[in-house]
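From the pipeline queue, job 12 of 40. The input is one protein chain; the requested action is below.

Action: predict structure.
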Amino acid sequence: KSAKLSPQEMAASKELAAAQGFLKYVNASPSPFHAVHEAKERLTKAGFKEIKETGPWDVKPNDKCFFSRNQSTLVAFAVGKKYVPGNGFCVVGAHTDSPCLKVKPVSANTKSGFLTVGVECYGGGLWDTWFDRDLTVAGRAIVRGPKGQLHHQLVHIKRPILRVPNLAIHLRKPEERAKWSPNKETEIVPILATAVKAQLEAQEASEHSSKRKKQGGEAAEAEPGKHHSLLLTAVAEEMGCQASDIVDFELCLADTQDAVIGGVQSEFIFSPRLDNLLSSYCSLQALVEASTASSLASEECIRIIALYDHEEIGSESAQGAASSLTEYVMRRLAKGGSETAFEEAVPKSMLISADMAHAVHPGYASRHEDNHKPALHKGPVIKFNSNQRYATNSVTAAILRQCAAKVDVPLQDFVVRNDSPCGSTIGPILSAKLGMRTIDIGNPQLAMHSIREMCCVSGVQQATQLFKSFFEHFNAINKTVQVD
């Protein structure tokens, strides 16, 4: 007989299973388009129905639905069995984008005998970490079908095809050795191939094309010069189409190294895009777990997750949190009651803005305020900022603490030093646009915005359980809050 697991061993097993679920998600999501696709797959498997923004909605109690905008933002919701228009919304918001390098509209460059790919720096990345990594491309292409129709198609080349090599230390000036920050335009130059090798390949392809013509076959169309034909061919082969069928694409560079569990005690996650696919995954998983028939049976609210694109660059886009998307969704869901059903619902609602937090770094502990040093394994972090870079206040913090206590999830507090800049999130944006109570929280991590980030295994289960508790207990806790 197998030995019975102790409570501690059972808890560790659940934590590991939750972390492994996240690894599958993040490894399959090298771009926001892939992250939304993976979320759709999981929601469909859990019984959610896809609806379209472009059509009418007939949403009823107990319904579970989702839709995407631009294939890079996703909204999903589960309607409580006792919901009536004018009741509240409990919302968890996160984002699908991460700092990365994106292929320019005209990317073909040749420098010093190398074919290079022109890229834009998206967001505020630690760009020096992108050097000497085995890189590839991922994203979406707009492909022309046989009848001229245009459709969106995902692409992810899983082998390393690009690299940004470092400059040898021997070739650096003394001041560059002491402090180096790469020039984003001239020094972040991904190499695709050597020009000599590319010319040989092109010559062979031309000879093959000539033979096909003589034999009566069709030759491939000449490639436009915006991108190297080698890159276009690789993308087309991955999608199973002709390069000439690609009308346009949005490609980001990504590390080919998978996210893994690491550390001598297997307690860490080493991964790209923790900020903010970890929050996206945990909110998704929590909604699925909180959308069973029994969980929705006594619910009076609508439970929502909103995973937005473009947070890393300010959220001001049609699919960003600064758009009118969230308000439009809530207004549609509140229809059927009084003329002021939406306005009545907002003060009964609450939003969790879920975005990763800064754990204290053993090499830079002084960068944190002495009384606010979030640590790994000690739970999600509530973020405070009196200048409203975070939207947390005492009311929303008190409600979340009650939700956490219901499932024994520890919480930590964070405020930035007065002599340090403070980042921001979708929290203040949505709080201001909607007039909705909001709290900013996030799992602690190290190396935020690096190509390889680091967090703890236990954090996945902690965040998922906290979000699930928020979905299931917010309405009852909110009724005890006496604040107008």
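Job complete. The CA atoms of residues 164 and 219 lie 34 Å apart.
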